[in-house]
Design brief:
alpha/beta, two-stranded antiparallel sheet, 13 strands, NTP_transferase_dom, Nucleotide-diphossugar_trans
Length: 238
């Protein structure tokens, strides 16, 4: 069976409100199309058969758009609906219940990271008791926390501070439903705090470094950069 992907699209987008206020972040217009279109176009390069959208805030905007344009893409759609905000962890947990496969890819709906999903998925299958994370090399950054690795094993998530050189969490994960990563957690929780940190302490996080194009449109400056960059990225040509 082909791959299943969860896209976390339930965020409130408070930092982006000054430039995009009437739609969820994943629907922010970038060079004439919703940001979500670019994520789905990217997923079309891989053997993806199903996309589960974890939705909450202004979800009808997303659902109506998929109903109209979803036929452009070679996979089916489903929704995990948050009637109240569940945090990143709660959103993933809810969406995993909609997935049929054991191994599921998770993307953030406001981040694009051009990685080889086949490679990351394949490496995860070699370490199924772990969570695989795509890591992005970066220089001179302070908006993201540095991820410390020993080989492919993630050993620590450092607090956000200026870093001359390192790797950051690129916001793409592969998770096995058979893992006990969510046991005992409430409906609402943070994936980063309540899952990644404890699993890191148990040596259960596997980092895969890839140096593809990366952007997080969560702040106005990077949203504007996406509007300039995206028309020139080859995989987005219609």
């Amino acid at each position: 069976m082909g791959k299943e992907v969860i896209i976390l699209a339930g965020g409130l987008g408070t930092r982006l409100r000054s430039v995009v206020s009437d739609v969820p972040k994943c629907m922010a217009p970038v060079a004439g199309k919703p940001f979500l279109w670019y994520l789905l176009k990217y997923l079309s390069n891989f053997d993806v058969v199903r996309v589960v959208l974890s939705v909450g805030y202004l979800r009808d905007t997303i659902i109506d758009w998929v109903n109209e344009y979803g036929g452009e893409f070679p996979f089916g759609f489903d929704y995990a609906v948050e009637t109240t905000p569940l945090g990143t962890g709660g959103g993933i947990k809810l969406a995993l219940d909609k997935c049929l496969n054991n191994d599921v890819i998770v993307l953030n709906g406001d981040t694009f990271f051009n990685v080889d999903l086949d490679d990351i998925y394949g490496q995860h299958r070699l370490h199924p008791a772990s969570i695989a994370l795509a890591l992005k090399p970066m220089e001179h950054f302070d908006r993201y926390g540095n991820v410390r690795v020993n080989g492919n094993l993630i050993v620590d998530f450092e607090e956000k501070k200026h870093c001359d050189k390192g790797v950051i969490n690129g916001g793409i994960y592969v998770i096995s439903k058979s893992g006990d990563f969510f046991n005992g957690l409430p409906d609402k929780f943070s994936f980063e705090t309540n899952v990644l940190k404890p699993q890191c302490a148990r040596s259960n996080l596997y980092g895969i470094v890839q140096d593809g194009y990366f952007i997080d449109i969560g702040i106005p400056e990077d949203y504007e950069r996406a509007n300039k960059d995206f028309p020139g990225i080859p995989i987005f040509k219609e």
